Structures are given as C-alpha cells and as structure tokens.
## 1
Amino acid sequence: AQKITQTQPGMFVQEKEAVTLDCTYDTSDPSYGLFWYKQPSSGEMIFLIYQGSYDQQNATEGRYSLNFQKARKSANLVISASQLGDSAMYFCAMREANNAGNMLTFGGGTRLMVKP
Amino acid sequence: DAGVTQSPTHLIKTRGQQVTLRCSPKSGHDTVSWYQQALGQGPQFIFQYYEEEERQRGNFPDRFSGHQFPNYSSELNVNALLLGDSALYLCASSFGPVGLNTGELFFGEGSRLTVL
C-alpha cells in the first residue's frame, strides 16, 4: 500500500488566490513527522513546513499552513495568496519513528501552476 | 553560507558503466542521505551516512554503494548501470541523524544521470 498519496497530479490556481494540495498517509507508527517540499525546475527540494504527529496545533510558516487531520490521516498544504513563483512540483513526505534518521517516504507529487 | 552542493549536475553514461556522484553537505552538517528521483515520481531513499558509516538503507541493490569522508562529504557509486538508473540523484544533509522534531533536512539541486 502507498504510504503517501497525493491524488492531484496537477492543479491550476489564479494568482493571489489560496490553494489546497492534498496529502493522505498511511502508518501504524504512533510517532511520525509530515513534511512538504517544493521542487522548482532547478531540481532542489525546498523545505516548506513540518508537522509532528503529537503537535497539538497545525503548523504554519508564512503563507504556508498545514491542515493536519490525524483521524483522517491527512496533511493538506494550504498556500495563501498564490504567487507566480509558487509554480512548481510539491511533495508530501513522511518520516516514521521506527525509521528514525533521514529516511523520508515521498508521495508522487502535485504540479501547481499559478496563472497571472 | 553554502548550502548542499552536488557534482556533476548532469552526466551521460552507457549501460554497464560505473558512476560516482559527489555531495558536500551544508556547513555545520555531518549527516548525508541520498535519494533517487525517477522522472515524474517522488524521491526514493537510497541510504544515509553518519560518522563515515552507512546507518540506514532503502530498498536498493548492492550496486548502489557510498562513502562518507572525514570532512562529511559523501559519494554515491553505482556499478553496472542499467537504463532504469536514469534519474535525478538528490543529496540531503542535516546535523546528526535527524529525529522527529525538526524538518532540518536540506537538499541539493541534484545530479541528473542519463543511462543510454
């Protein structure tokens, strides 16, 4: 079974509008971390936001927020006030406690395209 | 402050050849992980090096090997190249084998390998 599922291969959003990128995950480990990365055409994976499984509040980083619904095992990324520079691939990833270290499991990604 | 640097950025090899990719971690980081990203997919964890030893390994054959040097830089070696090894190889660095409470994992821009 897929551990990280991103069901939106591609999405369009109008500049200055908000957009939600979906991510669901599957783990039996009670302790885990969820990440979102942005990958522009240059290839570099840019860290956006992190949510720990025991965090009580949803993570926020500037225009990025993570809508964490633990019971549903979802960790959707919300980008507010989209900018043209937000056009890129976005990856959701998970790290489980029983695989502590730098082993991240990534989803297949969502390509976001921001329209002017 | 230099981030994670990788070399070469692009290379072309033929089947059966061997390749070595190099990574210098971000200043202050001592742990390096390698990921393989096939076209249109999310990255997959290959292995992690800390204190010059392989600490964790993903589901990759022994043709994939690595090394970490005393200055924390790392090499990824792939022997007997197959067409399916064509991918973007990403290096990530952190300070110590990262626990769950942080997203401090920085990626380089990758080395794009084409096997003909």
## 2
Amino acid sequence: DQQVKQNSPSLSVQEGRISILNCDYTNSMFDYFLWYKKYPAEGPTFLISISSIKDKNEDGRFTVFLNKSAKHLSLHIVPSQPGDSAVYFCAASEGYSGGGADGLTFGKGTHLIIQP
Amino acid sequence: DAGVIQSPRHEVTEMGQEVTLRCKPISGHNSLFWYRQTMMRGLELLIYFNNNVPIDDSGMPEDRFSAKMPNASFSTLKIQPSEPRDSAVYFCASRPGQGMTEKLFFGSGTQLSVL
C-alpha cells in the first residue's frame, strides 16, 4: 500500500503560469516532508522541505504548503520556467521528532511539462 | 565534491546471472541508502546503513538481494540470481548524519536490464 500518493502521473503547464503539484499521505506518523526533482538520467535532487510544525515554506519560486488535517501537501512553482520540466517526487519521514523509522518514503512522482 | 558515484551506469544481463551494483557515498556522510525505481512502485527503499551497519533491510524484496558496506566509502548491492522483474533503476544515496532534517544526496543510478 502506498503511504505517499501522487495521483497525477503528469501535468502540463504553460510557461509563466503557476504549477501546482499535489501529494497525499496516509501515515499520521509522518512529520517531515520533502520534494525532490529529477531530470532524465540523473538522480533526484532535493528541492524544498517542510516540517509538521509549519504549514508553509517558501524558497524563491518554490513554496510548499502542508495541510496536516487533510494529510495533504502541495508544491507551487511561480512562475513556471522551461527548466522546471522534470519529474517531481514527494517524500515523507516519521523521524523529525527523533523517533520512528529512518529513511524516506517516496511517491511515484509527477512528470511536470512546461510548455513555451 | 564529486557527489555520490554509482557504477555501472547501465547493466544488461541474462536471467540467472549475478549482478553487482556499486556505490561510493560522499566523503564524510554517515548514512547510505539503496533505492529502486520502477514505473509501478516508484522509488522504494531497499536498505540503509548508518556508520556502515545495516539498520533496516525490510525493503529488500527477496533473499536473492544482499547489500554490504565494508567501509565508509563503499557499498555494494548484489542480486543472485537475477530475474527479469529485477529490471529497474537502482539509486544509491548518502546523508551527512542520522538526523532526518538532513536531505539525501542521490547518485545518477544504475539502469539494470535483466533479459
């Protein structure tokens, strides 16, 4: 069973517009969340993270929102640029507070395509 | 820093053969992870090490899979015998410490094809 779900395998957005990638989780013990970006033939690279004590974290064009009651997080990219075309993975862990399992649980990824 | 180095980049083998994937983590990193990526299951954690000691191998699919970390700068993932369903991209990742706020650094992966 998938504990981290990314229900949109792909998303197409016009350059300059906002891209919104969604992620849902089922494990209530998760307390730290990350987004990774992956280009073809490369490994995933860290993009942005958020702990469960916050509901928003911003880094330049990237903002992650966390809704703990809905067990939902989203990644907003504004404005979207051609270089943002990649696969985005949502990941979660239950170790932020010092307990729980180590390692990250990943979703299946969303392929974001930025159209010119 | 060269990052996490994996070899080979591509491996094509026949069913029943032994396959060994290699990983050199970033110098100074204490934790090492092996992940497998498939279309059906996405990125799955296979096993991870802290200070060269295997901590959790519950993600290793079968006894055909084994992983070792003989020292802080080298790890292997072995499949013996290999099967077509093992075809996937295998990623190695390392992390500076054991704190979960520290992000993982991934290698470029090994694309394994078992015919």
